[in-house]
Amino acid sequence: MRRLQGLKNISWLTPRQLNRLAEALSTRRVAKHGVIFDKKRSPESAYVLLSGVARISCSNRKGERTLVIMVAPGMIPGVPPEVIGIRYRFRCEAVTDCQIGTVSLATFIEIALGVESADFKHMAASYSGRWDLVQLRCSNFMGCTLEERVALILLELSENFGTRDRQGVRLTLKTTHQDFAELVGASRPRVTEFLASFERQQLVVRDGRQLIVRRDRLERFLAERHSSANDPELTEPLAS
């Protein structure tokens, strides 16, 4: 409990809450360069770095691991939700020998906030979750071609503003080519060119003034481009 009191980002907890947290934590040591958690193990657990230094990394467009943040003792940040069509493979690793405390996320939320975990997750997703997605999308756009950026925006819009159709997912939102251009940071003529190309490849279908997105085909398209990006001989320059 004394060690928890000295951790900056959970020092707001009351002595009673800190005592309950201390009793609930399972502790272990992770040697230098060891994996503290990865994307597969992180969603339902809260991790406290009791001592040492850690880092969180993710995969970039070329499949290389890139440093995201260095972590000081305290609550280790949870990884954000993934953007549709991009795999980040977040991982938290020990930079030095570390002592880690682990508790179920549901238990931590009940101790710290006195509410059910599911209710808190719904609130957090509604209030700030979409900003996580915006930030992740923008950071990844720097490593994507314009064609890939248009595909990612189509997947995102179909997720948020789509209804199932026999041909795919119909966009219920009236979106102009200029809207697409602003979302991907490109000129309208270039976006129009790629949307027309997607129609020819049957990745999308135009029905009057509405677009029907074939999500499975777009996801395969992005997966194939991601595989090509990992091969230096097949990597394309960033389109303007």
Overall description:
- It is a single chain.
- The N and C termini lie far apart (55 Å).
- The protein has two domains: 134 residues, Jelly Rolls (Sandwich); 86 residues, Orthogonal Bundle (Arc Repressor Mutant, subunit A).
- It is an alpha+beta fold and 240 residues long.
- The strands form three sheets. Strands 1-8-3-6 form a four-stranded antiparallel sheet. Strands 2-7-4-5 form a four-stranded antiparallel sheet, with no helix packed on it.
- Strand 11 and strand 12 form a beta hairpin.
- It contains eight helices and twelve strands.
- 42% of the residues lie in helices and 24% in strands.
- The C terminus is likely disordered.
- Helix 2 packs antiparallel against helix 3 and helix 5 packs antiparallel against helix 8.
Rg, nearest Å: 22 Å
Our count of domains comes out at: 2
CATH topology of the largest domain: Jelly Rolls
By helix and strand content, what is the structural category? alpha+beta
